[in-house]
Amino acid sequence: MFPIVLLSVFAVVLLFLGFLKSRSVLLPATLLFLVAALVANFLDWNKTYLYFNSMLRTDNLSMVFTAIVLLSSFLVVALSGSFEDDEAAQPAEYYAIILFSLVGAIMMIGYENLVMLFVGVEILSVAMYILTGSDKRNLRSNEAALKYFLMGAFATGIMLFGMALLYGASGSFTLAGIASYASHAQQGLSLIFYVGLLMLLVGLLFKVSAAPFHFWTPDVYDGAPTIFTAYMSTVVKTAGFAALLHLLAASFTYVYSFWGIILAVVTAITLIAGNVTAVYQNSFKRMMAYSSISHAGYLLIGLAALSAQSRQAIVFYSLAYSIATISAFGVLMLVTRQRGMQTLSSNPLSNESFDAFNGLAKQNPLLGLAMATSMLSLAGIPLTAGFWGKFYMFSTAVERGQIWLLVVAVLMSAVGIYYYFRVIIAMYFRDGATEPIRISPVFRYVLVAAIILTIGLGVAPGLLQGLF
Amino acid sequence: MLSDFGTLLLFILAAFAFIALVLFGARFLRPDRPNIEKNSTYESGEEPVGNANIQFNIRFYVVALVFVLFDVELVFLFPWATVFGQARLIEATGGRWGWFALTEVILFVVVLALGLAYVWAKGYLDWVKPQPKLPTVETKVPMDLYKQVNERFK
């Protein structure tokens, strides 16, 4: 609750800080605001409160998700470097929009009422449409924003219709009210209820880019400025999965037999579509887009199983995934910028291909190490956080007895190793024109922190378990 | 027994039936003598010229956005006013209710006013934006030389 109020105030303050002559105050101010929100987030620790006439709820789980979202955005904002190299950029507005969108994300994490879920999803989505199109003179950015907006608006419409049908069936927007209606599952629920649940799921699955609702992801991730791609693929995904988990665990456990199998099939399709398509990509950024689809698939395993371990598994996985993704996109930004200056090529596609990483590790050991760690973590190699994330996810599937899903997931993570290692091979074993890339201190700190967190959580995954 | 959805369906059907009734009723009652003037787009005599799909000035959208913002603000103030003025609540809390409600709505209006101030300071409210900077060319050739050349080869 506190982060919502604080972030709203801070965002307005940031907008007006943008009128100052120097841009240099914006980045430290935003980072400071995010830290303040992170501290305020934990004020309610170990207590459960309902706020605003039972619209919002804070408990330890929601606070941990909020902390992950705030930490991810802290890292992303730190990597943004005040948008120094872009004259047309409006950093104050970007940072303010990021803070506003975090308000939406926190609402999605802690809602107790479907109306609040809708408001949160919309705040987050509208902010994302703007950030996707923030590179106004870039045609691909415009295209991405338009595509994202049209499809997102459509998905929102379906989700809203689903909520209306759920209300029509159960007579309540609150999660508790819907759960008490669903508890009469033995006597038979009205058909409207199931249709509503399906439409609500479709809307949310679209937001987390699960197949078959993933077609927007590659174009949007590819077209958006890299820094906002990093933000989108971490914060939106974490918030979306927190929302799905809360929804299914709080309201629909009684009708698990209905949605469990549907979600398991969606999971299998997502895993196959994401991983197999990622193999064929030549652009690193597009590969990361498909990789984010496949990680949505891994996260869905925990939802489709929805066992006692699922919460912990989803928290751990989203943290591991967020850190690895942010550091990978950070390295990509540095490399693209460097290549762009060297070749003066107007075609950004060539700067984002796998070849751009050729021989990177020889002259830039830190960048090589950061990229390698995050690729290993995303591939799920032991001693990285990603391994334990996958391990927890797979054990939820075992607990539920979904062995066929487990087999698909293990096969697909083997496929994943192929395309993640393409980057590592390019960096360490290929020759390429490389010069040392100048890394600003903030970048260095973020990359080192990401490496330490990834390996630290990989060596001692119990660190997080004690938290909640 | 009719469920709530059934009532809605009846409402929709009744709407269609009403429209059909009125339109067809008018169709059979009125005299039917069309001419070119009556069939034109604007009966006032305005001649439509050109394509309707033209690009509007982008500032129309900014003004429209700001307008909608404050329109919605006003809509929210009406329900607030009815709650704010409830004598029963004010008596029950010894006057504190009024101050509480007033503070809340002031906060609400201030946030929107900040938005207006931002738009104003950014210059989006000026219909004619400040003079655009014309590109200047740094050259050692004086301007009147160009003018002479232009005059000569007119």
Automatic annotation (TrEMBL), chain A:
It catalyses: a quinone + NADH + 5 H(+)(in) = a quinol + NAD(+) + 4 H(+)(out). The gene is nuoN. Its EC number is 7.1.1.-. NCBIfam families: NDH_I_N. Belongs to the complex I subunit 2 family. Keywords: Cell membrane, Membrane, NAD, Quinone, Translocase, Transmembrane, Transmembrane helix, Transport. GO terms for molecular function: NADH dehydrogenase (quinone) (non-electrogenic) activity; NADH dehydrogenase (ubiquinone) activity; quinone binding. It is a multi-pass membrane protein. NDH-1 is composed of 14 different subunits. Subunits NuoA, H, J, K, L, M, N constitute the membrane sector of the complex. NDH-1 shuttles electrons from NADH, via FMN and iron-sulfur (Fe-S) centers, to quinones in the respiratory chain. The immediate electron acceptor for the enzyme in this species is believed to be a menaquinone. Couples the redox reaction to proton translocation (for every two electrons transferred, four hydrogen ions are translocated across the cytoplasmic membrane), and thus conserves the redox energy in a proton gradient. It comes from the Bacteria. InterPro entries: NADH-Q_OxRdtase_suN/2, ND/Mrp_TM. This is NADH-quinone oxidoreductase subunit N. Residues 113-413 form the NADH:quinone oxidoreductase/Mrp antiporter transmembrane domain. One of its GO terms (biological process) is ATP synthesis coupled electron transport. GO terms for cellular component: endomembrane system; plasma membrane. It holds the Pfam family Proton_antipo_M. The chain crosses the membrane at residues 61-80, 92-109, 115-133, 145-168, 188-206, 227-250, 256-280, 314-335, 366-389, 401-421, 442-464. It is an enzyme of class 7 (translocase). It comes from Spirosoma oryzae. It is found in: Cell membrane; Endomembrane system; Membrane.
TrEMBL record, chain B:
Keywords: Cell membrane, Membrane, NAD, Quinone, Translocase, Transmembrane, Transmembrane helix, Transport. GO terms for cellular component: NADH dehydrogenase complex; plasma membrane. It catalyses: a quinone + NADH + 5 H(+)(in) = a quinol + NAD(+) + 4 H(+)(out). Its EC number is 7.1.1.-. It is a multi-pass membrane protein. The chain crosses the membrane at residues 6-29, 60-85, 97-121. Belongs to the complex I subunit 3 family. This is NADH-quinone oxidoreductase subunit A. It comes from Spirosoma oryzae. The lineage of its organism: Bacteria, Pseudomonadati, Bacteroidota, Cytophagia, Cytophagales. The gene is nuoA.
